[in-house]
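Issue 218. Parser rejects a valid record. Input:
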Amino acid sequence: MKNILIILLLITSVISKGQDTTFNKLIKPYSGTLSILSILKNNSNYYCSIGQVDTPNISVQNFGVLKLDSSFSIIDSSLLNINKYATFNRGNGLDIDPQDSSLILAGTIKNNFQHFSGYIVKFDKNLDTLWTKQISHPDTAYADTAATPWVALRDVKVTPSGDYIIVGNYNYHCQGDRYRPFIIKMDSGGEIIWYQLLDIIKHPTFILNLTIEQSDSGFYLISRVSGITYLYHYDKNCNYKWASAFNYESISGHISSIRSKNNSIIIGSNYFIPPYTNGSFGHLHVSSIDKQTHVLNWTKKFYSISIFSAWLRQETIDIEITPSGNIAVGTVGVKYEDNQFTADHRANILMLNPQGQKLWSRYYTYSDNSMGAEDMQFNDMVVCPDGGLLFGGDRAHNSLFIDAWLVKTDSMGYCPHAYTVSIEGVELVITPNKLSIYPNPAVDNINFNLKQNYSKDLQLSIYSSSGALVKQQQLISFGDNYKINVQQLAVGIYFIRLQSNKKVVYNGKFIKN
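Output the parser choked on:
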């Protein structure tokens, strides 16, 4: 019996440790590993695409894939060694077929001189390469003799039937930048089913990502036309179905993320504040569109969360849906402190409830938050079984060194070197104010102490983890200590918001047992 008890205690300890895992680390599975580019979860494993530069021959860049177990340890990896210059997709370009756990990776390689081609790789579940395929320039009459035929594959998604939808861009007549978009449908063996150049009127510029409609294998993508950013819906054969405008303030509509959620599409994009200059950068813009009516459910703007990378054209946004239906938004931007933006780039994560209301926000660095010490790049994230987030990117701590960066948070976004951005008014600002709540966890009552008196009465609001308002009451001003009865609340995690004169002054959380 004693032995059984010891075993049970050990099992409980392991489970508890797994549930509470947080970390913030640099990883180097291969010499010259530059970045965690995309992250996927399948069953109990995680898969990351990586970028790697050959050393000392820095003109050669490679793709790679890592496989992590449920404890986030690397258990397998594959480096392609294509011996060519590879262009990476940050946050896009990797997907998994849940039927056989095979991976499909899409990117770009430079063949010679200035000839860029699309490049697709399929891995089996053991990360062995099954096949590769190059995608040439669609303007074949020009590509054979042109000096700069440029093609770039931006994203790939697996359909419910096991085919692949791939989005890319090319330069028209092999001149200028890769603004013209195209879509390819490919079967699981790498054979092209159809190849569609998109209407330049609807899609005049870059398209960097898409998402699949699971009900019919159609897909959604984002384009900006005449200053207005639209969500477009196509069927599985690339026939246009409908479009809906959702952002009138973006000058770079290709920087976006799309996520299907029940009867809605959630979109992360950016908005700009005029006048526009070379130093202008975007701010976070999140929208929800109804799939049936094609109208906006809601739109939220967050001035204090910028969309700005230390690397040229490497801005990223990612949206993930948690099991409770909350909306996690990850970005890269410059730090907002003391009501101004600094020059330091950070990873940002914002958590919204299903109605788009703000729950919490954090920004992250690797080890040093002081000015000019290091710049961080956020690329992609996934939701973990414990409600935490696993996200990846890279760190630059001087002009010569770039390191792959991997972070695991808890369900509230906390981990080493996470910095809280609390909620105030219509935007998010960093504030040193903290609310001391005890006991936590609580059974019957919670107490909290305010370190500052307010001349106006306080309004207390308690929200469930799904964002539903479950309790609200007025508190008399000029108090120091307050006691709130929470006996009627169900077991779970709750958020507290205190407002004075319609302004949020404190935020906190507690656990109800």
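Fixed in the parser; the record now loads. The chain has two helices and 38 strands.
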